[in-house]
Structures are given as C-alpha cells and as structure tokens.
Amino acid sequence: MAKNKKCCAGKDPARLNKVGGQAVLEGVMMKAGNRTVTTCRKEDGSLVVTDGSFESVRKKNKILNIPILRGVINFVEMLLLSYRTLSISADALDLDEPSEKKEGKKSNTTSVVMVVGMVLGILLAVGLFIVLPGLVSDLAEYLFRIWGDITLGATWKAVIEGVAKILIFISYLALVSLMPDIKRTFMYHGAEHKSIACFESGAELTPENAREYTRFHPRCGTSFMFVMILLGIAVGIVVNNVFSDWNRFALSAIRLLILPLVVGIGYEFIMFAGKHDNVVTRALSAPGLWMQRLTTKEPTDDMLEVAIISIKCALRDDFPEFREFYDAREWEPKNEEPEEAEQPQEASETDSNNGNGDENTEPTPVNEAAESTNQNGEEAEESNEAV
Question: Is the predicted pLDDT of residue 7 greater than 60, yes or no?
Fold first, then answer.
C-alpha cells in the first residue's frame, strides 16, 4: 500500500493557511476568514451544518496584528471559538429531541455545563502543567539532597520540571485516547487534517483524494501545545535562575504572567512552520507531529465527507454548488407542510408507485452536496483570506 502524501507535498501557495479547523463531537469545524462552519453527523446518518462566523478583533484594530500580540489574541479567540463550536455540536446532535427540550431548557443546561467544563479545564491545565511539574522538581531536589547529598541548581530543576511536563502531557493524551468517544473525535481530527492537506495541495477535494494525505499537520493544536511546553522549559530555566530565592508558588505565578509571551512566540513558530518546508522547520516540528500519533486516528470516508463539507461551506464563494446547498439550509426542521395535506391521495399513489411508503423519495440537498463532494469537487479560486 502506498504511503500517505505529506501535508507539505505539492502545496499551492495561494491556499496555505487559508483554512483551519477543529474536531468536535461527531463532526468538524472549519474556519476560513470570518466564516466558521461546523458540520456534524447525527446517529441516523443525516448532516447538520451550522454557521458560527465572527469577525476577529484583529481585523477591526490593525495594531493587534503585530507579531507576538496577534498570537495572544488568536489564542483567546480560539478558546472562545472552541467553546462555542463544542456547544454547537452538542446541540446539533440533539435536534431530534422533543421540542420542549430544545426551547431553552436544554440549551441553557448545556451552556452551564460547557462554562463549568471550561473553567475546570483551565484549572486542571494550570495544575497539571505549571504547579505539579514544579512540585515534582522540588521533590527531586529533596531526594537528591537526602540520598546523594547533591544540591540541584536552578537550571537542572527547570530541566526536571520540563521533562515532567512532557511526561504528563504524553500520559494524559495516551489515557484519554483509550475512551471510545474521544477516539472517534480523534478520528474526526484526522479527517480535518487530511482534508486540509488535500485542499492545500490544490488537488480535487474528495474523500478518495483526501484519504491519500497524511493525518499529521504542522499547524495542529497538538503541535502548538508541544511547542509551548518546549518554550516553557527555556522560560523556566531563565525564571529559576533570575528568581532563585523565590518559593515555588511565586515562581508559578511568574510563569503565568509570562504565559502570554510564550503563547505569542509559539503562534509565530506554528504559522511559520505551516508556510515553510525545510530542514529546520521539519526538525523543530517533528516532536509535535509525533504527538499527533496520539491525537489523530485514521478516519473513515464518511468522516472525510463531513470535513470536506465544512471546508466547502466555509469557502462557499470558491465552491458555488455549496453556496446553494448552504443557503437552502435543508437540515433545519420545517414547521408545516400544508401543500401535502391538500392532496393526500395523490401523494399516497406516488409513494405506492415508488414502493417506498413514507420514506423520502428524493435526495436532500445534504445528500446532493455529499455526492458533489465525492464526485464534483472543484479547485478553490485565489483569495486573500487566511487563518
């Protein structure tokens, strides 16, 4: 079997960084410029497409586009976007619930759960990747002093702390990947990467073509997190040496204050690596790409179909057939169908002739769009938009 094509192989410069995405519950979100489209597949196989578009504050205030600062702004916006798209996917998967649950009560409960989950997630991240590694380095210093009468310097303590962060990060990803629901989300993550790699190469955007591309991408959030950890080790060495007399919690507070700078530098590297393919960027991106072996799995063709629909809907100016599909919004529930009630006998005869009873006899626009994804994908036109 032939190897998957690399994400950097044969890239079309006009398409680089034009679209980015995120795996969600049973679906994929794609962002192109101001447009953010989330496509989810329900248990019955039908698709739900939701527009969560917004305009970045960086476009409203040009000063926010300066290097480093733009990375911090992007990080905050992506956190908010992740919260919103996860909420959208949760709601989309429950569209077939009773109407009284959809009219406020359920969405309010979901929103509260999502907010609480985000707060707990932030606290867990701070505890796991800032406080706990620091305590591990303190414990190591204590054991070296007790058992070997060795005093660790500030640099070695920072290195031990960094190694602890890496081990915690890898262990966390390995454990959550064993959960069935998370594994499916990681499969959609792979579908997101493959479809973006196919699009950036300039190839026709179909599941068959996307399947041939790698599921590892240098602009992935996993790579960003790993770059953040490596930068954190370097920052930790400086902080530990400059503030060597300070206690552990004071050092943790300093690292939190410096975190925006680390985020900004990490963003600049990820964007640079996404546009350049050379020995240096490949070497620096390699650890993050290795981590994607845990956070991405090989997707099925129907998952690739979902990711491609999100891309084409987000870039619907470049894919005219998907502008019509998106504007039709056939996935939204209809209130009434009075015309069918006027001629029930005729409709019944039609159903009887077709042998389908009450089943749908015509493909929905969602199915038509899926067929278009599989058979009639078109190359995107050039655009100045970039993510």
Answer: no
